[in-house]
Amino acid sequence: MTTDALDRPAAAVAAAARSATLVVVEDLALHFPVYQGLLRRQVGSVRAVDGLTFDIRRGETLGLVGESGCGKSTTGRALLRLYKPTGGRIAFDGRDIATLEGEALRAMRPRMQMIFQDPQASLNPRMTVGAIVEEPLIEHGVLRQAGRRERVRELLDAVGLNPEYVNRYPHEFSGGQRQRIGIARALALDPDFIVCDEPIAALDVSIQAQVVNLLQDLQRKLGLTYLFISHDLSMVRYIATRVAVMYLGRMMELAEVHDLFRAPKHPYTRALLSAVPVPDPKVEATRQRILLKGDIPSPVNPPSGCRFRTRCPWAAEVCAKEEPEWRTLADGRKVACHFAE
Amino acid sequence: MTDATADRPAAAAPRPARSQWWDVWRQFKTHRGALVGAAIFLVIVAGVVVGPWLWTYSPGFIDIRARNQGPSLMHPLGTDQLGRDMLARTMAGGKVSVAVGVTAMLLSISLGTAIGVLAGYFRRLDNPLMRVTDLFLALPLLPLLLVMVTLFRESLSGRFGPEAGTFILIVGAIGATSWMQAARIVRSAVLAVKEQEFVLAAHSIGTRRRRIIFRHILPNVLSPIMVSATLGIASAIITESALSFLGLGFPPDFPTWGRLLYDAVDYLQQYPERVLWPGLAISLTVLSVNYVGDGLRDAMDPRIRGR
Questions:
Q1: What CATH code is carried by the domain that includes residue B38?
Q2: Chain A nearest CA to B101, separation (Å)
Q3: Is residue B259 part of a domain?
């Protein structure tokens, strides 16, 4: 991991990062060891994330989609260094955070925050809303007590909650309101980058729209950059600037949202998109679906060559032998497929 | 929830943070069993602390002519086989028993909680600490206590005086041999809580470990701690009785509830009421403490509070 990171022209990457890109990820890998037997010997590893290379531009929303268990959330958490990557680099605003530890990492935390999927589980049931939103301010020693109170009220107001609610507990709120509390907490330290880990998956459809609109408003006002993890393709289409598609710990395709939804290049993307229902019943009735056969292979023992080949309708011999390169097509899209052009 | 909204003024003036302990007390008041339990426990504590001043009969005074008497005005709870006043002895014994019970419980709960939290939160410490816990569980308690008492009694008595020395010894011995259940329970609760997303959220904020433990994990494992604490008082009182019975605890002429009970057992056939008083006192203490613990646990959980 370290040799790989050192070989790269880090200075050049850093210079590029300072201009338009906020996060540069190179070869990010995260393997969870599997222990078995009486002696707890390591018998293998779950390759949750296995060699991701992408970047996130300042001010954009990068949608990250894929089916359950493909490593979306793990990627998001690894980017925030909630997990320690097994390999690769994560340059945040030109600074490699993949190997940072302790206080140096803690000092970076205010700049990158997270919004969680389950607003119920992500709020401590024994703390008041005020205490929850205030915690980041206390932890990083910003402001004195009176100033913190004022800031908490501002934040609650900014996410559309009544500032009078500071003394209530999370269980007294509805799901949408709780998610707003989570957003207020994420905003407390004025971050540049927020990982939204399926922030709307646990909410009602009507509330989903409210929360997504709130996220967009905040992005406009505060110049935030989002990594928006979701399996709701229509929502990603609505909110994202670019979309990355993951399958079994690897990235399959990365493109501007229009390009991706208009003409997907990777067979897996095609299959995913064909599963999105169309609101028009006539179109829906005649819609062609690409049905994938079988289950996702185990990430402990992924298929040789292209990971998608076991379920790909167009798989050829070369797919089993060679791993497709993560290459850039003529129009700037990235794809990992031997046949895409 | 209704309480929270009812007292909210219509005007939107910034309100000071509401005191959590006031909320806890308000919820505690609604738990009738806990209130009754608290009242009984207070009466017992007041009885054993203030009682000896009001009932000035010495618990050690032997009046051999008045032995084995039933309840009378002179001796409201009767007298024992040496003519000592049972009321005075019950009160004096209670002081020791309650003090031993509460202190030993505090010691074993703090020890158990500390070990449980460390084992649950830090994966590296889990195995060694839990094996130590298993070791303590596997040790035969009485021989261990016997060894502890013979080893340390003289030096402790010499340093703190015979009574305080024995008190420290017994509390220490009970505390050191009864923390294992609490440690196991707390560990498993911590294991469950630390995987919750709000701990991850705290981590992503950059919260330091110590604060994660004290602010996020400990309050959420309070219920099992409360339960084992209240049960701990009971078992500490009973262990102390057993030790006194074996002659390992306080000196034989020194009354504790356990000793009174064991002394009375010999006369169970002739004077059954003599077992009744210390037995009743132990049961009432244990029961009231359990109810108080139950009420406290509910009152400290904001999800139950206000329902």
A1: 1.10.3720.10
A2: 30
A3: yes
Q: How far is A115 from chain B (nearest CA, A)?
A: 8
B196 vs A contacts (CB less than 8 Å): 121
Max alpha carbon distance in chain B (Å)? 77
Report whether pLDDT(B307) > 60.
Answer: no
**Contact call for residues A313 and A227 (beta carbons, < 8 A):** no
Q: From CA A202, how far away is CA A181, in angstroms rounded?
A: 15
Residue B119 lies in a domain: yes
ipTM above 0.95, yes or no: no
CB contact under 8 A, A126 and B219: yes
How high does pLDDT run on average in chain B?
82
Inter-chain CB pairs, A–B, below 8 Å: 80
Please tell me the pTM assigned to this model: 0.80
Question: Per the CB < 8 Å rule, is B301 touching A126?
Answer: yes
Query: What are the structure tokens assigned to A100, written together?
Result: 């940072």
Q: What is the pLDDT of residues A77-111, one digit of tens each?
A: 999 999 999 989 999 988 899 888 888 899 899 99
Interchain CB contact of B29 with A (< 8 Å):
no
* Residue B306: per-residue pLDDT: 56
Measured distance CA(A115)–CA(A103) in Å, rounded: 23
Whether B65 maps to a domain, the answer reads no
Q: What's the total number of domains in chain B? A: 1
Higher pLDDT, residue B213 or B75: B213
Domain coverage including residue B279: 30-51+87-300
Q: For residue B69, is it within any domain? A: no
Q: Hunting for tokens 């990083």 — which residue is that?
A: A140
pLDDT at B5: 42
**Residues of chain A where predicted confidence (pLDDT) is lower than 50:** 1-8, 13-14, 16-17
Bridge partner residues of A242 (DSSP): A62, A256
Tallying the residues shown for chain B, one arrives at: 307
Residues of A contacting chain B (CB within 8 angstroms): 77, 80, 82, 106, 109-110, 113-114, 116-118, 121-128, 130, 135-136, 139-140, 149, 153, 164, 166-169, 171-172, 182, 185, 189
